[in-house]
Here is the input.
Amino acid sequence: MADLQARLALLEHEREIVRTLHAYGHAIDYGDEDGWVDCFAEDGMFDVRGRIQHFVRGREELRRFIVRHTRAPDAWHKHFMVEPLVVLEDGFATCSSYFTVLRDLDGVPVVGVFGRYLDRLVPEADGRWRFTERVAEVEVWRTDLPPLVAPAE
Here is the structure.
């Protein structure tokens, strides 16, 4: 019975981690700033590397970043995450997944960017798993599209 309970707990943790991965994409595409920031732990870090660069740490900086991000209906895009490989460790999880962002180019959907996410998540007191680290390795970026994030003032 203990083995069954351990396997069930593992599945529940993995499901909650995947929920956080999906919540991130839904929130960023539709301007749910609170929901997006809530995907991160208090001292969480978001690091975009590669063809574009952004680095923010802590919920205050995360919020200042996300308010500058485009969103529907002013700019249509969809953040997709696929093939998450979740590994549960003692007290945290790592996850590697692929991402792409579909964007609107004069009514035509185009791939604007793709790469991979490298994540570290922790469970918090409310039962949610949140990012302590989210690294977006941007491998390809369309330079003929407007930026997704406005420059900081």
In short: The chain has one domain: 2-141. Strands lie at 40-50, 54-57, 77-88, 93-105, 108-123, 129-141.
